Protein backbone atom coordinates (compact mmCIF):
# COMPACT_ATOMS: atom_id res chain seq x y z
CA UNK A 1 0.00 0.00 0.00
CA UNK A 2 1.34 3.41 -0.95
CA UNK A 3 1.75 5.97 1.81
CA UNK A 4 -0.29 9.21 1.60
CA UNK A 5 2.90 11.13 0.77
CA UNK A 6 3.64 8.83 -2.15
CA UNK A 7 0.11 9.02 -3.52
CA UNK A 8 0.25 12.81 -3.26
CA UNK A 9 3.62 12.94 -4.96
CA UNK A 10 2.37 10.89 -7.90
CA UNK A 11 -0.68 13.11 -8.33
CA UNK A 12 0.89 16.53 -7.79
CA UNK A 13 0.27 18.96 -10.65
CA UNK A 14 2.54 21.96 -10.20
CA UNK A 15 2.44 23.38 -13.71
CA UNK A 16 0.28 26.26 -12.50
CA UNK A 17 1.72 26.57 -8.97
CA UNK A 18 5.41 27.26 -9.52
CA UNK A 19 8.32 24.90 -9.13
CA UNK A 20 8.48 21.39 -7.81
CA UNK A 21 11.17 18.88 -7.03
CA UNK A 22 11.28 15.92 -9.39
CA UNK A 23 12.07 12.48 -8.00
CA UNK A 24 13.27 10.00 -10.62
CA UNK A 25 13.28 6.66 -8.80
CA UNK A 26 12.10 3.26 -10.06
CA UNK A 27 11.71 1.46 -6.74
CA UNK A 28 8.42 2.17 -4.94
CA UNK A 29 9.87 1.42 -1.49
CA UNK A 30 12.85 3.73 -2.06
CA UNK A 31 10.61 6.51 -3.40
CA UNK A 32 8.34 6.20 -0.35
CA UNK A 33 11.33 6.36 1.98
CA UNK A 34 12.77 9.41 0.23
CA UNK A 35 9.46 11.24 0.31
CA UNK A 36 8.98 10.36 3.96
CA UNK A 37 12.48 11.57 4.88
CA UNK A 38 12.10 14.84 3.00
CA UNK A 39 8.63 15.40 4.41
CA UNK A 40 9.49 14.69 8.03
CA UNK A 41 12.83 16.49 8.39
CA UNK A 42 11.15 19.87 8.91
CA UNK A 43 7.72 21.44 8.68
CA UNK A 44 8.63 22.87 5.28
CA UNK A 45 6.99 21.00 2.40
CA UNK A 46 8.38 20.61 -1.08
CA UNK A 47 5.93 19.77 -3.84
CA UNK A 48 7.37 16.59 -5.35
CA UNK A 49 6.53 14.84 -8.58
CA UNK A 50 7.65 11.24 -8.93
CA UNK A 51 8.44 9.34 -12.12
CA UNK A 52 9.92 5.86 -12.47
CA UNK A 53 11.79 6.13 -15.77
CA UNK A 54 14.45 8.50 -17.02
CA UNK A 55 12.57 9.17 -20.25
CA UNK A 56 9.54 10.41 -18.26
CA UNK A 57 11.81 12.56 -16.11
CA UNK A 58 13.41 14.18 -19.14
CA UNK A 59 9.99 14.88 -20.63
CA UNK A 60 8.89 16.48 -17.34
CA UNK A 61 12.06 18.62 -17.21
CA UNK A 62 11.42 19.87 -20.73
CA UNK A 63 7.95 21.04 -19.64
CA UNK A 64 9.58 23.40 -17.11
CA UNK A 65 8.61 24.20 -13.54
CA UNK A 66 11.19 21.92 -11.92
CA UNK A 67 13.55 23.53 -9.42
CA UNK A 68 15.50 20.44 -8.39
CA UNK A 69 15.90 16.78 -9.34
CA UNK A 70 16.57 13.80 -7.08
CA UNK A 71 17.91 11.13 -9.42
CA UNK A 72 18.59 7.45 -8.81
CA UNK A 73 21.44 6.24 -11.01
CA UNK A 74 19.96 2.75 -11.51
CA UNK A 75 16.77 3.00 -13.54
CA UNK A 76 15.10 0.48 -15.87
CA UNK A 77 15.86 2.53 -18.98
CA UNK A 78 19.38 3.75 -18.06
CA UNK A 79 22.25 3.02 -15.64
CA UNK A 80 25.50 4.71 -14.70
CA UNK A 81 26.73 8.27 -15.12
CA UNK A 82 24.81 8.54 -18.41
CA UNK A 83 21.68 8.50 -16.23
CA UNK A 84 22.76 11.94 -15.00
CA UNK A 85 24.04 13.23 -18.33
CA UNK A 86 20.70 13.00 -20.17
CA UNK A 87 18.56 15.10 -17.79
CA UNK A 88 21.48 17.50 -17.26
CA UNK A 89 21.57 18.10 -21.03
CA UNK A 90 17.80 18.69 -21.00
CA UNK A 91 17.92 21.15 -18.07
CA UNK A 92 21.48 22.16 -17.13
CA UNK A 93 20.36 24.92 -14.72
CA UNK A 94 18.26 22.60 -12.55
CA UNK A 95 19.98 21.46 -9.34
CA UNK A 96 20.45 17.67 -9.28
CA UNK A 97 20.96 15.48 -6.23
CA UNK A 98 22.16 11.95 -7.06
CA UNK A 99 20.74 8.99 -5.13
CA UNK A 100 23.16 6.09 -5.07
CA UNK A 101 23.66 2.69 -3.58
CA UNK A 102 26.93 2.13 -1.73
CA UNK A 103 28.07 -0.09 -4.59
CA UNK A 104 27.72 2.80 -7.07
CA UNK A 105 29.25 5.64 -5.07
CA UNK A 106 32.11 6.07 -7.56
CA UNK A 107 29.56 6.62 -10.33
CA UNK A 108 27.81 9.17 -8.10
CA UNK A 109 31.11 11.00 -7.68
CA UNK A 110 31.52 11.01 -11.47
CA UNK A 111 28.05 12.55 -11.81
CA UNK A 112 29.13 15.33 -9.43
CA UNK A 113 32.19 15.89 -11.64
CA UNK A 114 29.79 16.13 -14.60
CA UNK A 115 27.70 18.82 -12.85
CA UNK A 116 25.44 17.25 -10.20
CA UNK A 117 25.20 19.28 -6.99
CA UNK A 118 25.90 16.36 -4.62
CA UNK A 119 24.92 12.77 -3.87
CA UNK A 120 23.40 10.67 -1.11
CA UNK A 121 24.32 7.04 -0.49
CA UNK A 122 21.53 4.62 0.27
CA UNK A 123 21.91 2.69 3.50
CA UNK A 124 19.49 -0.27 3.39
CA UNK A 125 18.96 -0.06 7.15
CA UNK A 126 18.59 3.70 7.48
CA UNK A 127 17.58 5.09 4.10
CA UNK A 128 19.60 7.81 2.41
CA UNK A 129 22.28 9.49 4.48
CA UNK A 130 25.58 11.19 3.86
CA UNK A 131 28.41 9.96 1.73
CA UNK A 132 29.83 6.49 2.30
CA UNK A 133 33.01 8.04 3.74
CA UNK A 134 30.94 9.58 6.54
CA UNK A 135 30.87 13.14 5.21
CA UNK A 136 27.40 14.67 5.42
CA UNK A 137 25.06 15.78 2.70
CA UNK A 138 21.78 17.49 3.34
CA UNK A 139 19.40 16.50 0.58
CA UNK A 140 16.78 18.98 1.80
CA UNK A 141 19.40 21.74 1.61
CA UNK A 142 20.40 20.81 -1.93
CA UNK A 143 16.81 20.51 -3.15
CA UNK A 144 15.77 23.74 -1.42
CA UNK A 145 18.86 25.51 -2.74
CA UNK A 146 17.87 24.66 -6.30
CA UNK A 147 14.52 26.34 -5.87
CA UNK A 148 16.03 29.38 -4.12
CA UNK A 149 18.71 29.84 -6.81
CA UNK A 150 16.11 29.94 -9.55
CA UNK A 151 14.19 32.69 -7.72
CA UNK A 152 17.27 34.83 -6.94
How does this structure look, described?
Strand 1, helix 2 and strand 2 form a beta-alpha-beta unit. Helices cover 41% and strands 23% of the residues. Strands 2-1-3-6-7-8 form a 6-stranded mixed sheet, with helices on both faces. The termini are far apart. The longest helix is centred in the first third of the chain and has 13 residues. By secondary structure, the chain is α/β, with parallel strands linked by helices. It has 6 helices and 8 strands; from the N terminus they run H-E-H-E-H-E-E-E-H-E-H-E-E-H. The N terminus and C terminus are likely disordered. It has a single domain, classed as Rossmann fold (3-Layer(aba) Sandwich), CATH 3.40.50. Helix 3 runs parallel beside helix 4.
Radius of gyration: 14 Å
Class by SSE composition: alpha/beta
Proportion of strand residues: 15-25%
* DSSP strand tally: 8
Question: Helix and strand succession?
Answer: HEHEHEEEHEHEEH
CATH class: Alpha Beta
| Second-tier CATH architecture | 3-Layer(aba) Sandwich
Number of helices: 6
Q: What is the end-to-end distance?
A: 39 Å
Runs in which pLDDT lies below 50 for 5 or more consecutive residues are 1-16, 134-142, 145-152
CA-based shape? globular
| CATH fold group | Rossmann fold
